[in-house]
Design goal:
Number of strands: 7
Order of helices and strands: EHEHEEHEHEHEH
Mean pLDDT: 94
CATH architecture: 3-Layer(aba) Sandwich
Number of domains: 1
Length: 187
């Protein structure tokens, strides 16, 4: 049985989360669940809670990776909670646990997560119009290395479709690379 695709949703925490970003994240969680994907978040409030709530409304699976050494403060829509006890360093755990990343708004913590995903070459999709890092970085590369372009989309449905498309393209490229390596090694 193949492992299910895990999508990390990152963005605003409670203090900066607008109503529009919250509702967009909630709809995004629903789209992720409809597609049969596993939602991974930082397990807190704001965008993380909204996406988890949306996924649960459709019967989806949610994982919250929290900064604390206890599971008690995670939002109530997390099926599974990973208590890291490492504070903001847990941002790396969130994006490393996702096969792809979707950005809804976001501030400095979100930027850390975007950079971590970028350096790993993970597909990153930003929903335009949600503010913050999503609007600032959609359609751009973070630096001259051009590791991965942050794809901008207009809504949650497009975000999930784009993630699946990018993951399919990435897996085909990796398979071709493995095949090239195996044929060149056998000569």
């Amino acid at each position: 049985m193949a492992r299910r695709i895990q999508v990390a949703v990152i963005g605003y925490d409670e203090e900066l989360c607008t109503r529009f970003a919250y509702e967009t994240a909630r709809a995004l969680g629903q789209e992720i669940a409809r597609a049969g994907l596993v939602l991974v978040t930082g397990g807190r409030q704001g965008v993380m809670k909204a996406a988890s709530q949306g996924a649960k409304e459709i019967g989806g699976m949610t994982i919250g990776i929290v900064p604390w050494d206890s599971t008690e403060k995670a939002n109530e829509f997390c099926d599974a909670v990973v208590a890291t006890g490492v504070g903001q360093m847990r941002n790396f755990f969130v994006v490393y646990s996702g096969d792809a990343v979707i950005v809804v708004g976001g501030g400095a913590g979100t930027m850390i997560e975007i950079v971590a995903a970028y350096l790993k070459g993970k597909p990153i999709v930003a929903i335009r119009g949600t503010g913050g890092m999503a609007d600032r970085l959609a359609g751009r590369y973070i630096d001259e290395r051009r590791v991965v372009k942050i794809t901008g989309v207009g809504n949650p449905s497009e975000a999930v479709k784009k993630v699946l498309q990018l993951l399919h393209h990435t897996s085909r490229r990796k398979a071709a690379s493995k095949e090239d390596n195996s044929t060149s090694g056998s000569q």
